[in-house]
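Subject: Sanity check before I submit

Could someone independently write out the structure tokens for this chain? I want to compare against mine line by line before I put it in a report. The sequence has 534 residues.
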Amino acid sequence: MPVKITLAATDSLAVAADVSVVGVALGAAPRGGIVAALTRKLGQVVTRTLKREDFTGKRDQVAHIVTNGKVRPQSVLLVGLGDQPLTVADVRLLAAKGARFALGARANSVAVTLPAGVEGAERAAAEGLVLGAYRFTRYFTGDRLPKVELERGFVLTPAGARVDNDGRAAVDVGQKVGEAICMARDLINEPPNELYPEVLARAAATVCKERGLKCTVFDEGALEKKGMKLILAVGQGSVRKPRVVHMTYTPEGGRAKRKLVFVGKGLTFDTGGICIKPAPGMEEMKGDMGGAANVIALMAAVAATRPPNVEVHGIIGCAENMPDGNAYRPGDIFGSLDGKSVEIINTDAEGRLVLADVLAYGRSLQPDAMIDNATLTGACVVALGPTVSGWYSNREDLAERFRRAVDLAGEAMWRMPLVEELRDGLKSDWADLKHTADRWGGSITAALFLREFVGDTPWVHVDIAGPSMANRAYNVYAKGGTGHGVLTFLRLVDEFAGAPREEAPVPEVVKPATGGGRERPAADLGGKPSSRPR
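---
Independent answer below. Compare away.
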């Protein structure tokens, strides 16, 4: 059951919550504010706790103070905010940390006090509470079932402030956006015997039906008629046949000034096919549909935010890569929806084949921009680590818009180059293209291959192989599926819809996100990781 979030105007020490979460700026702890108020109520235990924890308000510091009934919340969690100007991403993270702490403390309720001076903080706090409270428990039974649920969340504005309909609406939208991202997490965490191409397509169709979006599902016969031979090739070794799903959001009135297409790779399980993966870590290949999960979540979020002026299409290619007697082989040559012929080199590089047909289909919609995201290459994880996505673009104006969206969303992504000299590695002696090149620069050559199928369409490719799954909770992300990328894509939609611009912070130095994951074996640098960080 999702946490129910309420906007309230009350003091952080007057709210009836199990945990009250308050951000503290660097250097503010000794002088006043929440620390002074706590000291007046609780005495020197506050000073001793802060000294023991060496809490000064540095970013990521925390101090937990039990109140023993002397104020209404049972405990107060102080979270360091650092000394930089705060953004909506900081507010989201503050709330997520508080909710995650409350969940670990087996609390029923948590409240987060909004820092002053951040526009859009109500929505961001609601998003953070939902994201921080997430856990996947569907298959637990008996003693493994959670004993306590985090049921209530409060977003607190200053006592005496007016709680208006705009604020309540912002919290409601924030909760829905958070729940949409958690939907992506659920899909990624599902086991592959439960989630296969038909089920993933059905999940997308259900989202559309429940939220008033248009949806078309293409089955195997429809894909054959269209000539989408690459996705069919990838799926021909499985009894679970491929699907392509086309979801559409149309703004009120049916008139849109812009059209965006988002594409997601949906490999519900990837054995590597004939070029089979090593057994250790293969179970994590259930998450090879993280890009498709993100697109489904994005469409659910767009249905909640209802952006004007922009038509949004979400297209996912769903397949399962298995090694039976009918599986595709290295050396095979297939046509494509685009018309180009492709020589197969490595059947474990199947994601770019699925994307190639779906990108060609998306191009036919003549969008103003097309963005794909996929758990595509281990090479990207080697280059950027397990918590940062790499992205590529063929247009500088779109790249600038996407960069702004990344900064405002607060997600860790880094632009990568489309190195033209590596394009020669995709030349085939027997077909128009090979689908892989040498392993050096494997993420780049994968992007160059995809570029062959977008034509003149302004395009961004996002390789989410590292952060799509996490091996521990960090930032706003949970262990397992993360939904990394959805917030950025939603920001980009807002940009095209004409939402008011915010100034994105430009850090003096790049601070890499924290998180973990296993190092990829060197032999796998050119294809997808043999195991996903989790």
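---
OP: Matches mine. For the report I'm noting this point. Confidence is low (pLDDT under 50) at residues 506-534.
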